[in-house]
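User: Study the fold:
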Amino acid sequence: MECIVKYSIKLTKRSLRNLDEVASYYEKLERGLGIKFAQYFFKQINVLCSLPNLGKFGKVDGTRELLFQEFPYLVVYRIIDNCVQIISLIHQYNYSIVKEASGFSLKANHLKVN
């Protein structure tokens, strides 16, 4: 996905898998909600094309986190040159539990990008 300003977006296989799982879950809850979630996801990450530093600093060095307002999820990403790499999509509740229970070492492994 190319951006008008200067940053491109790259979705990792993990982030695409996360998106598919979450959208499918929402679609099962209510018809059309999965599509709404996917549209919201792409709208939010598209903002990162022109404002890549919008998200807060992440728990793992070199990452940033963009919290969603309409859904309880956050996107973990990193900036490499002129590219915003979307690493993962995480439910905010699960993210808090992982952080509290395991500390940085598990968190770093959880967000490891191959």
